[in-house]
User: What shape does this take?
Amino acid sequence: MRSKLSRFNTLRNQMLLGFLAVMLIILTFVGGITFHSVSTLLKNNAEKHIQQTAIQANGRLEVILEQINSLTTLVSTNGYVQQLLLQEMDGSHSTFAERQALQPIINLVQIYTDGIKSVELYNNSGARLYPLDGGSLGDKVPKDWIGQAAMEEGSLVWFGIDPSDSSSLLAIRRVSLIDRYFTSGGYLLIRADRSKFALKGSLSGEGTGETVLLLAADGQLITSNDDTISQKTAVTLAEASNDQVASIGNRSFIVVKQRSSVTGWTLLILTPVSAVTKGTSILRTTIVVSACIGTVLFTLLSFFLSTIITRPVFKLIKTMRGTRLGILKPIEHVSSTIEIQELNYSYNKMVDNINELIQLVYEKELSRSHTELKALQAQINPHFLFNTLDALYWSLLDKDEDKLAEYVVAMSDLFRYTITGPNKSEWVKLREELEHVERYLLIMKMRLEDHLDWEINAPPEYGDVELPRLLLQPLVENAVLHGVESKIEPGRVSLTVTSEGDRIAITVEDDGAGMDEEKMRKLVEGLESGKVPSSKKSGLGIANVQRRLQLFFADEVNKTAEIAIESRKGHGTRIKIHIPIHGGNKL
Assistant: This one.
């Protein structure tokens, strides 16, 4: 299965699929942005249009309400009405004839305004003066409505649906007595036909099927042209933010509301979203068709371009396969394309270089064989070296040269520790490594005499910690050769072992010449790049220590095995390495 798939994993197929993917992404992005922008534009324009329609519809309602307000104002300020109510306040009850004379005055409201069922006049105590059938204002409306009308001081207050007649709307105006400093003299009760406030049909005149709701200030649904919308839903829509999209059942509407400054009523116009965005279906179809045509054309063009690009490459591959198993030979011209010509030229140059390198490697291998043979012939037998040192040791003892004999023993032990044979392990315990360092410092002390002073501080409980052989000697050797020997006055080298959690810290410090900032910077950069020269070209040094830390503590590097350097010009150098107590990778 994998081999079948690899057959299609060609450069031409990758280019073709890449071009198609880019094209589809661009078409999808541009089409989506275009569709979203046009849909948003249509929606915003529709919302503005609906908002204007709502303002116009609310204006028509307010014209009717203002007309009723003006006529009732004429009635309440009429001189005869003022005189009759003033008489009632003074305790003189109106006669039947006086009350009957109110008819032509009060009927002005019904005559000039369509939809007014009745206009009733009550004195300040709530007794009805007109019509003449008696009754009380408290029996008609709740007391809090009367109190609210009294607080408005003569303004017409619309309360909504009549509690006793659901087909009527109630409004109350307090009649203020002009001759009594505008104190309350009575009330006008207006009862209007509820159906006259219904807004039916399409307000915009475009047949979009708007739903029109009119709510009173207390949330009563005054009129609606959609019986499926409840009063609770209408109140929720009225309390929501302006110009939002609301969902009612499985229908979505653009909601626009307008509040009347005359009555405090709220006019809601709900326009179906489908009616607003019905033009986007044509746009969607156009975008999809254009995308399909563009994809087909781009596929053909991509196939043609990918073939033109990859055909010379395939020819070049075929030519290279012919020389892979034989002698490397230059290839002939395969294309006039600049890039392919450059590739052809580079391959020919590579063939020439490889042929030259083959000859060079052959010559170097021949020279290396001769060199290794000479090195093997000049190799010293370790047993011969150790036997010679032992003989020198006994000879010095016979001559009472105990101090020199001690140094010879130290040197013999140092060689035995340094020269590793096939049966010696690469890993040693910390105490063994410290003993080797001590022997090295003892020999250097003999050479430098009073110019060198040294100290080793290591707790015995860490003596069994394992570490690679000869890991510490290069650091001590650097401290002696580059630190103590570089200063005129005597110097000191110290090696300290401390504990830091699950690892130990080994610090080698000297008070020698130290390094300036530039040399320190180059050393740190060299350690990071792995290009630090070895100490006096002996094959050891700090770079060697770092490479061995990375080799033997590969899983722990940057975690528990690390190396840190501090140095100041004229104050010495301090090198600290961290070794995990549990050991590392024993290769």
